[in-house]
Amino acid sequence: MPNVAVLTNDLQYEFSAVLFDMDGVLIDSRTVIENAWREAALMYDRHLTDEDIQKHIHGHPGPYTIRTLFNDLPVSDQKIVQAHIIHVENTTDCKLIPGVDRLIASLGEAGIYVGIVTSGWRQKINRVIKLLHAEPYISVIVERDDVTRGKPHPEPYLLATQRLGIPASQAVVFEDAKSGVISAVTAGSYCVGVGDEDLMPLGTKVIIPDFQNVKLIRNSADSFILKLCADHCILLNKSNSL
C-alpha cells in the first residue's frame, strides 16, 4: 500500500491511512441528530439546551448522551429514547458532505487505506457507505460497539490504526466535532477539521469547509498530491518509492 506524507511549512509527516468521522464529515446529519434528541426529550416533557447538544450529543455515542441527559429516567424509558434515536438516524436520508464521495473514491483507487471511525450504529454506517458507493474502498470501520471508551478518548482511533497494522501517528483524520478532534489528536494522529473554525485551538492542523476543493493530483508515476487548501498538501507516495 502507498504511504502518505503531509508537507506543512518546513515539517514532513508520513502517513499511510486516511480516516473519516461519519456525522458531519461524510453526511450532513447535524439537524437530523439534533431534532431526534429534541423529540426524545419532549416525550418526557423536558427541553434540551444548545449547550446540552454541543457538549453531550455531537461527537458522542448515544449511550453516553442517555447516561448524561436522561440518567434520571428508568432504564425502560432510556431504552425507548435509544430506540427513537436509532430509528430516526437509520431511516432519515441525509445529504453527503460536498465532494467527499469523490475524495474517497480517489483515495481508494490510489491504494490508500480509507477508514470510518464513528460513534454511530452499524446499520447507519452501512447505509452511508452505500450512499457513498464506497464499498470497495473502506479498509477499516470502528463503530460505537467496538470500543469501551468512545470519543473524546483516543481508543476509537487507536483501534482503527491497530486493525490496519500502523501506528496512529501515520493516520490523517477528518473530524467535525470537538470530542472527535480531541480523540484523534490524543491518539497522535494528524487531524483536519471540517466546517467549524472553533476546532483549530484543539489541535487541528487546518480547517476546510467541505471537500469540494480537495483535489487528488497525480504528481509522478509513483505519487499523488492531495490538496486540502492553498497551503496544505498531502503527498501520496507508493511504498516502493520511499
From TrEMBL:
Naturally occurring in which organism (per UniProt): Salmonella enterica I
Molecular function GO terms recorded: metal ion binding; sugar-phosphatase activity
Keyword set, alphabetical order: Metal-binding
Keyword Metal-binding recorded: yes
InterPro entries: HAD-like_sf, HAD-like_SPP, HAD-SF_hydro_IA, HAD_2, HAD_sf, PGP-like_dom2
Highest taxon, organism lineage: Bacteria
Name under which the protein is recorded: HAD family phosphatase
